[in-house]
Structures are given as structure tokens and as C-alpha cells.
Amino acid sequence: MASVHDVFARAALRYAAQEFLHVPCVAGHAGATCPMSLAYGAARERVDHLRQAYVDAGYRGGHRVAIALDNEPEFFLHFLALNALSSSIVPLNAAMSREEIAHLVMHADAAAVITHKIHAPHIRAAVPALIAVDVVAAGDASWEPPAPCAPPSAIAGEAALLYTSGTTGQPKGCMLTNTYFLELGALYSSLGGYCAFRPGLERLVTPLPVTHMNALGCSFMVMMMTGGCLVQLDRFHPSTWWQALRDARGTCFHYLGVMPAMLLGAPPSSADDVSSTVRFGFGAGADPRHQANFERRFGVPLIEAWAMTETGAGAWITANEEPRHVGARCFGRTPPGLDWRIVDEAQRDVPTGIPGELWVRRCGSEPRRGFFSGYYKDAAATEAVWQGGWLHTGDVVRVDAEGSFFFVDRLKNVVRRSGENIAAVEVESALLQHPAIQACAVAPVADEIRGEEVCALLVLKSAAEPSAKFAQEIQQHCLKLLIYYKAPGYVCFVTHLPQTASQKLARGEIRKLAAREVAAATAIDLRSGKRRPSAS
After folding, report:
1. What is the largest CA-CA distance in the chain?
2. What is the DSSP code (8-state) at residue 460?
3. Residue 403, CA distances (Å) to 15, 323, 331, 433 in order
4. Cα 230 to Cα 202: distance, rounded to the nearest angstrom
5. 3 state SS of 221
6. Residue 419 — φ and ψ, nearest 5°?
7. Same domain (yes/no): 54, 164
8. CB 75 within 8 A of CB 67
9. What is the tens place of the pLDDT at every residue in 485-534?
10. What is the residue range of 226's domain?
């Protein structure tokens, strides 16, 4: 079976002297020299060295290694070295709470955790003592990994176990094979139209987290498959964004909806002088009010696309050709080989132009080809999402008479904040651990910059008094249990929560109630308390 490492090895032979990874001075990477560049040939030498170090320590096919290296270039080198051994990685966001890290590492049956010095104390405090935590430094030729402390547990061909928020409790581990990654790269590199990749010439700039499918699979794979250079920023910095693209000589970039909104919010200046080398931006969730304005002001088309971690390249739709219907939430037309349905609540196909839930699968005898291989340790959830032989996306869309798809809403009980999927029930579980909360419900509310924000509706026990100070206490309680972006940005104190006839939360009514509370300014605004923690 071909692997991610095989793709890299071929590219390293053909493009040995060309840049593989690049970090511009304004990228913000901790401890990085300015700038940092690594050619394909030099990267292969470092990958080979890391591979041998893992072999010497006892790693082999099927081991899983959790990697908490943020968006640093070392992340990709360790990914490739482990992939060469048929081992799998578990990308970790080091900003998660100790409870979240502990759950993911234990659930994944990780054999070790690899991280940077700045994160080591936090991660060591999170994981059980029996799991080794080791620190790496950029370019450290003497580094040796710890011996694996768990047996191989990955499925055959697995390249990564990527955790994604669902609608029922803790994040689920999506098993992603080498085939999943290869098909991502093959599809993206062959799109054409606005997204035509020129072999050996492209320099793709992305600030998106490597713990997500986009940066882990899409940008990384397409650059290796076309001999391009990946410019992986630490995160999105609006004030230095265009400078980073100019410094890196970027030809394209990846975005989430929050990015165009923030860039448009800056006053016009010389910083708007976008390099003529930038041909397109690729992403999802651009606000309809912003897409056309962005393209006019900066002269760069924003190419909207749709996919999920679960679908991979098995179901990927892109507005890479006209008509793009700019400003209408259009994400393109279906590619050849994709079978789809749009259904109502009774699972009946809806007429053209009517919104419904999107169901997808591959045409032919391999309907799940290119999709994820299932949720780790959760066969029931895997079969539920594939009920009836179709992957149920939970996204409400409509299609026009010409075959263009338009995003409408989500059926899933999820808050989509700055590109992060936040399961309402996960936040509700954290809230209910506070002794003063009798009942709660979490809903998304609109946010001008972040797209959506987390709003918590709380019913307090009789002894508790609602107040702004108490709302801040609730937020701090959640920040101890959850990564910062999952904590409530708004808190509403209510006397009861809307329920259905079967005594379940009436999610639709709760969303309307949350929106009314925020619009009336009766919700307590805690957004300023949601800050990315310092790495120090």
C-alpha cells in the first residue's frame, strides 16, 4: 500500500533542492530563526534520522504516538518518520485542558507523547505517569524517543487518529488511513480552475491548526504531490498576514470564515498591497456579506469548499469554477463519482431548491472509499453516521437547477466558532459539574467576527444568585475543564429551558431564546474572557 511517506520520498528525489517547509519572520513560531527554510532533500535526511531513532526505541507498525508540537515544522517531520514505520499519529492541541488531554491520550492508546519544552509541564501533569512524555527541540540531531509504553493498536494502514467534536459528549477519534491522505492530495491537486497547481512552483500559506483535517491533510498533501512549499504559520495574525504572504512569496493561502472578516475590519493601508503572486484563497465559511468585498479590496478570489473530517476526499465539493455565486454561501458543484441526496426530516428526497440534510457516498462498489475508516472504539456511532449506506452529514443545504450547492444551516447541535466545531453537550457536561447549576443548555449565537459564539442558558439552584460576577465564575469553571474556545462567551440566567413533549431539550427553541437574549443585551457578555493561553 502506498503511504504518505512514499509521496514525500518521491517528491524529495524530484525536488531535492527546492523548499519543502518555510517559516517567514513574522510567522510567530516560538524560538524560530528568521526566516526558516528546509529543502526537500534536507528534510528527507532529518526524516530518515527520526525514523531510525523511533526504530531503535522499539516503535513499529500499529503504534500510535501523540504529537503536541503545535504548527511547528517538526510536526510534519515526525509525522513522516512515523508514517514510514506504518505507525500512526494522534495530533494534540497543547492548549487543551488537562482533562481533555488525558482523555484523548488514554482513549487513543498512545504509546508516547511528543511535545516541546514549553508544553511539557502541562502535558506531564495531564497524562498518567505510565505514558512517557518526551521533549524535542528544533534540529536536535541527538534526540531519542522514549520506549513505547503501549502495544500497537492502530488499524491496518492507519496514518492518523484525528479527534473531532461530535454531537454526543466527548470528541470522537476518526481513523484516517494512508489512502485517505493520498486521495485528499490527488483530488486537491487535480481540481483545476481557480485552484490549478503548477508543479514545483506553488507556495501555500496556511495558519490553520495541524490538529484539523485541512492543514494535516489538504495543504500538506497537495504541496508534496506537486513539489510545492508549505508555509505553515503558527496561527492567524491579522496585523502581519499580508506581510507574511509577501515574505513567504505565497501563491495561495488557506482560510476560515473568521479571517476575511478580521482582515476587512482593518482600515485601508499600505498593508493591503497584496503580492501579485497570490492567485487564490481556499477555505470555507466566508460570511456572504464579506466575500465580494474581500475580493474587490484585495483582488484575491476566495474559493469556498465543503468537506468533513469524516468524508475526506470521498465527498468534497469545491466552487473552483464559475459560477461561484459569490456572497451566497455557494460551495460549488459535485465532482464526478460523488453520489448524493438531500432529504427532509422523513428522509424523503426534497425538490430542487428546497433545503434538506445532505447525504453522501461514493458511486460504485466502494461507497466509503476516501472516507474515514470509522470512529475508534465506537462502532455504534460509525454505523449511525452511515445509516442506510449513506453518510449523514448533519448539514442542511440546497441545490439549484444548475447543480450548484448552497450551505443553509446545521442540524447537528454544534457551535462553529472560528472554524472549531464545539459540541454543545460537551460544554453542558462541564457546566453541570458546577454545584450551583440545576440545568443548562448551550446554543450557538451569531458573532460578527467569529461566525458563532457559545451561549449558555443556565437554571440555577435556589441558593445561587444570578449576577455578572457569578457568570464570570461559571466561565472560569469551564476554562479549567475545557480548552478556552469552548467556554461560554455569553451566559443567560433563565427560570426554565424549553422542552419537547418527551421532556428533551427543544434545541430549536433554545437557539431562538439565546438569540433573543443576546440581541436584547440581557445575556452577560463574557467574550473578552476567552483568550488563548500563553505558551510560557
Report:
1. 70
2. E
3. 39, 10, 11, 47
4. 9
5. helix
6. 85, -5
7. yes
8. yes
9. 999 999 999 999 988 765 678 888 999 999 999 999 999 999 999 988 87
10. 4-396
